[in-house]
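Changelog entry

Holo records now carry the ligand SMILES as an explicit input line rather than a separate metadata file. Below, a converted record for flavin-adenine dinucleotide, shown in the new format.
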Amino acid sequence: MAEFSLDLTEDQITMQKWLHDFSAEVIRPAAHEWDEREETPWPIIKQASEVGIYSVDFMAQQWFDDTGLGMMIAQEELFWGDAGIALSIMGTGLAAAAVSANGTPEQIGEFVPAMYGTPDDVKLAAFCSSEPDAGSDVGAMKTRAAYDEANDEWILNGTKTWATNGGIADWHVIVATVDPSLGTRGQASFVVPPGTKGLTQGQKFKKHGIRASHTAEVVLDDVHIPGGNLLGGREKLDGRLTRAREGLKSGVQPSMATFERTRPTVGAQAVGIARAAYEVALDYAKVREQFGRPIIENQGIAFKLADMKMKIDASRLLVWRAAWMARNGKEFTAAEGSQSKLFAGETAVWVTEQAIQILGGNGYTREYPVERMHRDAKIYTIFEGTSEIQRLVIARAISGTYIR
Ligand SMILES: Cc1cc2nc3c(=O)[nH]c(=O)nc-3n(C[C@H](O)[C@H](O)[C@H](O)COP(=O)(O)OP(=O)(O)OC[C@H]3O[C@@H](n4cnc5c(N)ncnc54)[C@H](O)[C@@H]3O)c2cc1C
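Structure line, unchanged by the conversion:
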């Protein structure tokens, strides 16, 4: 009767080793170069596609792993290699998750494989929800979607910002408002296919970290898309709008549904960064000598490493719990997905900073990777819901009170 187990299956162990080797041999050696170039690492995405990591089959296999842990293990290993490059490989997944969470089975079958393309013709996708005046406050979104009944088309207008892969992607999933008077309940998600007129890239941002991942504005100027590119279909949207107008509870919102599905995976990414920095610091502390002995022999250093290891393991357990719950249909009663992202994100920032401290002057230079890892880690308290918003979500869930 010992059902509880944290043992990985043989398939999971094989996959973990495969991704670890790809990270160690391909991603890690390229990390410094692409961080400095601040460009999407196309050759590495292509290589990931050729070996089958950047592929709809691999991603689907990990998402539908019975335990829920497959995707968590994959994220941790790739982000252990380098966060910027790994985000370029995994960025399409955010758009694919939006389609999977909100689309009909036909839409999922049509759009998701097309978003990855093939090794000979690699494609990218972007998920665009945030706007200059609508970051945490998703309900303030101004991008409009209007339906043209005569031509069975949707017409999108507005400006999205901070979109990972925005403008360079082939496919864009756009969250837009159909009825602004309904706030988030008046929003829906739309798929903009490659080459659609009116969609252009605005400013490309120069960033603090994850610099190998492209982040940009996406401008939508009279973008016409087929009626069938409304995720979930017209009937479902009309029903939802009617219920919202009647003031009834209308169920999960498009962008929220995406975030619920992706939060533990984002936590797993942060675990990968933290583990990478911890390993560098542990190795360094064993060989760096001051006062005639390795610095690890000082409790001041060894205790830091003990705390780093403990918090990384705790983060992983929270991530795995949330992923297991999501996969096994367990209801999140205390915002377990948010807990995992919040704790892992803040742990990554803290652990990478401790790693710099352990490496001293070397840690502060770009000769050693922990400086980059610290810059990369910081995004984990900001995107996919800031730390403050995660606390708000958890506090509301445990209290049943509308805390502001
Ligand atoms: C590198 C990068 C990649 C990104 N990728 C994407 C992407 O692919 N797609 C996408 O749609 N978006 C993306 N984002 C946007 C990201 O999700 C937002 O930046 C994030 O949601 C925060 O919004 P904001 O920047 O407008 O901050 P704001 O919402 O303006 O928040 C500013 C500060 O106020 C705090 N705050 C706000 N409201 C409250 C409150 N009620 N209570 C307490 N504190 C509060 C916040 O926690 C934060 O500390 C990305 C951002 C970056 C930087």
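Spot-checked after migration. DSSP finds 13 helices and eleven strands in the chain. The mean pLDDT is 95.
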